[in-house]
Design brief:
nine-stranded mixed beta sheet; five-stranded mixed beta sheet; NADP binding
């Protein structure tokens, strides 16, 4: 592996530490190398600031002069709440910047590279571009299409059931799989469920067992907000954010009651008697979310899949069978032919405790 590939892979690993922690900004990593030695490194801080580059430059100090900066996305060239990273790189005396690809944000796209080159800084692009594009896919979707990346998670029995006929579901999978789910929650900006899951499971939807992390926004998609006020979500809405995505016909008293608990109420268009999935994700994208982790239930999963709004599937399969009377993980989709069913490409299969985790990605077109 060449030095450029090795250092960019290092920067990408650092950037992933910010996933779920820095929205609405991208999770960027930066490594500064001088004479073959890493002298500074950083990644986007929780809340999105400071950016990766100034953190790495602060660590490098004077050693940054004449060094190479490996950054996982084109450095920003506009002034927001902080000065541009391109300016920070120039002032620090960086001689070369290696970045895999351009930022699709029109405030930055191409301008960062142009600024660096105009000030005599060598720019190299294309290093591990596919890997970087995958890491930043949620940010790019928000910028280009106004919606976040959607990961749909299902924990099933071997025969594809999420509960028995009586609704018992805790626990189909083992403790190692449940811990892995908390890690996946931490890597997303929000955790989303439908009203049925919120009623049946009374979930907390928080990250537990992974140390101090920025908790994901807890999103409930419920046309009529038919979720009990005597629930863990309602009682903790002032501690960690709860967003209720609802239809405009939801009762005013219900909206007022949830708002008084501290929840944020976000109206959404309805189609066919249900929240429109495309409109739902547009609402979330408009609030700055880049990565959403959907944990069901079956009807919400079905609507997202049918609308081709799921980008990644994560399944945890346990070695037990519940039979046809068990509850399926995905509701009715009206699929009559195999050609109509959404297909995904297998990315990974891993043993997690006594269960199997498998990840699937929507085919790239």
């Amino acid at each position: 592996m060449s030095d450029d590939l090795r250092h960019m892979a290092h920067a990408l690993r650092l950037g992933r530490r910010g996933m779920g922690q820095c929205w609405p900004n991208p999770a960027v990593g930066c490594v500064i190398v001088k004479e073959g030695r890493v002298v500074g490194r950083g990644w986007t801080a929780p809340g999105g600031r400071p950016h990766a580059e100034p953190q790495a430059l602060a660590m490098a100090g004077e050693a940054a002069r004449g060094a190479t900066a490996y950054v996982t996305l084109e450095p920003c060239a506009h002034t927001g709440k902080t000065p541009p990273c391109t300016e920070a790189l120039r002032k620090a005396g960086i001689a070369r910047v290696v970045a895999p690809l351009a930022d699709s944000d029109p405030r930055v796209s191409g301008k960062g590279f142009a600024y660096l080159r105009s000030h005599g800084i060598e720019v190299t692009t294309g290093i591990l571009a596919a890997e970087a594009a995958r890491d930043h896919a949620g940010f790019f979707l928000k910028v280009e299409r106004g919606r976040p990346w959607v990961t749909l998670k299902l924990a099933n029995s071997f025969d594809g059931r999420i509960a028995t006929a009586t609704g018992e579901s805790q626990w189909i999978t083992g403790p190692e799989a449940r811990r892995a789910v908390h890690g996946l929650r931490a890597a997303h900006d929000a955790v989303m469920v439908g009203a049925g899951t919120a009623r049946a499971d009374d979930p907390a939807l928080t990250v537990r067992g992974w140390g101090q992390v920025r908790q994901p926004v807890r999103v409930v998609a419920s046309r009529l907000i038919d979720v009990p006020l005597m629930s863990r979500l309602a009682s903790t809405a002032r501690d960690e954010p709860v967003w209720m995505i609802h239809g405009r016909e939801a009762a005013a008293m219900t909206r007022k009651a949830w708002a008084s608990c501290g929840a944020r109420l976000l109206p959404c268009d309805v189609s066919g008697g249900r929240l429109d999935p495309e409109a739902l994700l547009s609402v979330l994208g408009g609030q700055g979310l880049t990565r959403v982790f959907c944990e069901g239930g079956g009807q919400l999963a079905a609507s997202l899949l049918a609308a081709d709004m799921v980008d990644e599937l994560v399944g945890f399969t346990a070695g037990l069978a519940l039979g046809a009377e068990g509850r399926p993980g995905v509701g009715a989709m009206g699929v009559d032919r195999l050609s109509e069913a959404p297909r995904f490409v297998l990315e990974e299969t891993t043993r997690v405790g006594e269960d199997v985790m498998h990840r699937w990605i929507r085919p790239r077109v």
